[in-house]
Specification:
It is a single chain. The protein contains seven helices and twelve strands. The longest helix is centred in the last third of the chain and has 16 residues. It starts with 7 loop residues before the first helix and ends in an 8-residue tail after the last strand.
Length: 302
């Protein structure tokens, strides 16, 4: 039986941490003086001498649900990775919750969902092990998981309807199921800031709608949600702001632009992944065969 995200919203119960509560007043409004969740200040990045980000400057307020849109090669995934310290900047600055990225240490606040990437021949891991790895930033090194940690993993697995696959090797799952594992991994850390790189890719229309409902719930509870998307699809009503990149520059910042071309056709379903042409291993996004293991990118923690 095909697993679905139908239980995503029913099972997941976001739990505010102290950092979230401190940012909002009693009536739910953002506290005065709260710094943006992310700031990119004149950010430049390049791969092999080719400029990918060309002077990008944006502020993402706490509690906002924002999409970064653009064609393949526009720099949208690179911007997201730069905000998390995965890709270094050639110049410029990134600030995370008011702190320069190089000094930011509160990574337990971050829930990161990378694009589905695979690598063959790796040491196999179970679904539960991958999901539990999302708690690395919030636990002390070499410490055993607590009852609360285990409960968070259980909740995350139930949220993506993979509880019955917890003991299975990730390599045995389909590409769509692997994507749900990555989403559960982000949820398991119970963060307040989520960054998702094309979470809808490889997910069918019914599950896209369920995921959109869950993201709306995160938004309503005060989470910051940044999504890299090729198109909005069922997230159109959830997104509060859209930034569009072309050739590494911001060409639009405001309400989401209307879909054009193939994406605007009635009934269009966005299910295919979009490998980043700037990725050093573009073939890693090939999902035609089961993966040995998900290649996980982890925000910097040094």
């Amino acid at each position: 039986m095909r697993a679905t995200l139908g239980n995503f919203d029913n099972h997941f119960r976001f739990r505010h941490n102290e950092a979230v509560s401190a940012q909002f007043t009693g009536d739910g409004a953002q506290s005065p003086g709260t710094p943006p969740a992310f700031q990119a200040i004149d950010a430049y990045a390049a791969y092999d001498g080719v400029t990918v980000l060309n002077g990008v400057s944006i502020d993402i307020p706490v509690g906002q649900t924002m999409a970064v849109l653009g064609p393949n090669g526009s720099g949208k995934s690179t911007l997201m990775r730069a905000m998390l310290g995965i890709v270094p900047l050639a110049s410029g600055e990134i600030r995370v919750h008011g702190t320069p990225l190089r000094r930011f240490r509160d990574w337990k606040r971050m829930g990161y969902v990378p694009q589905r990437l695979t690598a063959g021949g790796a040491v196999p891991a179970t679904v539960r092990e991958i999901v539990a790895s999302g708690q690395v930033a919030r636990r002390r090194r070499l410490s055993w998981p607590t009852r609360d940690d285990r409960a968070a993993v259980d909740e995350a697995l139930a949220a993506v309807d993979l509880s019955d696959r917890a003991g299975d090797a990730v390599r045995e799952l389909s590409g769509g199921q692997q994507q749900r594992v990555l989403i559960a991994r982000a949820l398991a850390g119970r963060p307040d800031t989520f960054v998702m790189d094309e979470p809808m890719a490889g997910v069918d229309a019914e599950n896209q709608r369920a995921l959109a409902k869950a993201i709306a719930r995160l938004r309503d509870q005060g989470s910051t949600v940044v999504l890299v998307l090729h198109e909005l699809g069922p997230l159109e009503e959830v997104i509060e702001r859209a930034v569009v990149l072309e050739h590494g520059r911001v060409v639009h910042d405001g309400e989401a632009p209307e879909a054009t071309g193939e994406c605007a056709r009635p009934g269009h379903e966005h299910q295919h992944p979009h490998p980043d042409p700037n990725d050093p291993d573009p073939n890693s996004a090939d999902t035609s065969t089961p993966a040995e293991m998900i290649r996980l990118e982890v925000p910097r923690r040094d």
